[in-house]
Design brief:
Heme Oxygenase, Chain A; 63% helix
């Protein structure tokens, strides 16, 4: 996959794919210059959003200071988002304007449900000699992969992302019955979930594309690393049996998802019906909803008197 970032973190640039299309005469220099200008607008409008640049909650969480009650609250709210995302992802498949975009959306949805990414030459269980601790940190090769496609992949219940999150929750005294249902969500969590369905799963292709691009670039912007850092510190200090695979795997794979959305943007931008204002609107609205989710967690933390 061609890189989409310049040396400046978060700065979008014209990819090698576009340069190749220019060389082949499929695009004019004027079209490529206009696309470059649009990427600058996307960066200013979306990638500089406050929740991408600085997330106070995850910055605090990275220190590993969350007590058991705070950890349970975080995992429970994240489980509601994780489960509700499946609905938004299915809506994105259903409302995809092309078969190629439907397939790209299926990659995310099916992997969430337990279909493992595989390279055609990659055997199942290729690294089965790994220790349980290493599997939790790096991913069980029978259940996870960060490369390849779900096409021809193996489906396993234990590879479903929500089941990994249940494994994390067990370490802090939460069971399956405590997780993932709307009744467990706070008002800010449910607002985020509903906005995901409205924007990311919208039947307005341009609006949904902007939401998809924004949410995947938010996911690739570093908050997963902050969550992993905090949970690793907690595991080392007081909860040695805490399972981290859900968070360590997502930290490794989200860059791949962001790359897919860049490819989708390149595809839709040069179509005659592309509406840049709708694209940017979808991105802005979902990022505001993302901010509501994290700011809700930060409000809950401060209200509880956390340090």
């Amino acid at each position: 996959m061609a890189p989409v970032l310049t040396a400046t973190p978060g700065a979008l640039t014209v990819s090698a794919r576009i340069e190749e299309r220019l060389q082949r005469g499929e695009l004019t220099p004027q079209q490529v210059d206009a696309f470059r200008d649009f990427l600058g607008e996307v960066e200013r409008e979306l990638l500089h959003h406050r929740i991408i640049k600085v997330n106070p909650y995850t910055r605090w969480f990275a220190q590993g200071l969350a007590n058991d009650a705070e950890l349970r609250h975080f995992i429970q709210q994240f489980s509601v988002f994780s489960n509700e995302f499946l609905i938004a992802a299915l809506l994105r498949v259903i409302n995809a304007p092309t078969i190629q975009q439907a397939r790209a959306s299926k990659e995310i949805l099916m992997n969430e449900l337990g279909v493992i990414y595989r390279k055609p030459s990659q055997p199942v269980g290729a690294r089965s000699e790994l220790s349980e601790e290493t599997k939790d940190r790096e991913g069980d090769p029978d259940l996870v992969s960060t490369e390849g496609t779900v096409d021809g992949g193996v489906c396993r219940f234990r590879a479903a992302h929500f089941e990994w999150l249940c494994g994390v929750a067990e370490g802090v005294g939460l069971s399956f019955a405590d997780l993932g249902k709307r009744k467990h969500g706070t008002a800010t969590t449910l607002h985020f979930c509903d906005e995901l369905k409205r924007t990311y799963g919208s039947d307005d292709a341009q609006f949904a594309e902007g939401a998809s691009f924004a949410v995947e670039n938010w996911a690739a912007a570093g908050f997963w690393q902050e969550l992993e850092d905090g949970l690793t510190a907690i595991k080392q200090r007081r909860l040695p049996h805490l399972k981290l695979a859900f968070f360590t795997w997502h930290n490794r794979v989200e860059g791949q998802h962001a790359g897919h959305t860049m490819e989708e943007l390149e595809e839709v931008y040069f179509q005659p019906d592309f509406e840049r204002d709708k694209f940017l609107q979808g991105g802005r609205e979902i990022l505001e909803a993302v901010a509501v989710f994290w700011e809700g967690l930060e409000h809950d933390r401060v209200a509880a008197g956390s340090n």
